[in-house]
Structure prediction request, 131 residues.
Amino acid sequence: MQEIRLGDKNGILGSLFIYIMAKSQLLVKFMHEDEWVDEAEIKREKQKARELRHTSWWFRRINEGKCHYCGMNVGAKELTMDHIVPLSRGGKSKKGNVVAACKECNNKKKYLLPIEWEEYLYSLNKDDTLI
Prediction:
């Protein structure tokens, strides 16, 4: 059995464990603060997100062309679907957990929880005031 750990349990990265089974099967599980989310669950939620992208609700959200995080008008084609609570951290693909975000914000936020994202933005503002 092989284990790879990224970050610490209380860190922003959470922990990623990879277990290699004896029958050459790879099982990936994500853990953060004692909550396990397996690869199959993430696949199911990604499929739900793909289906949600084809609803009139989603088209109305992106039609505004505005990023949920930075507020910039980038146009509907430049918006991506972001999970407020990431799938790897136990989030679901439901209307209350997805927002339209520009690619830049979505890439920066990645797997962060809302409180961690706010801390990140605060640290950026704090760095700007020191200059």
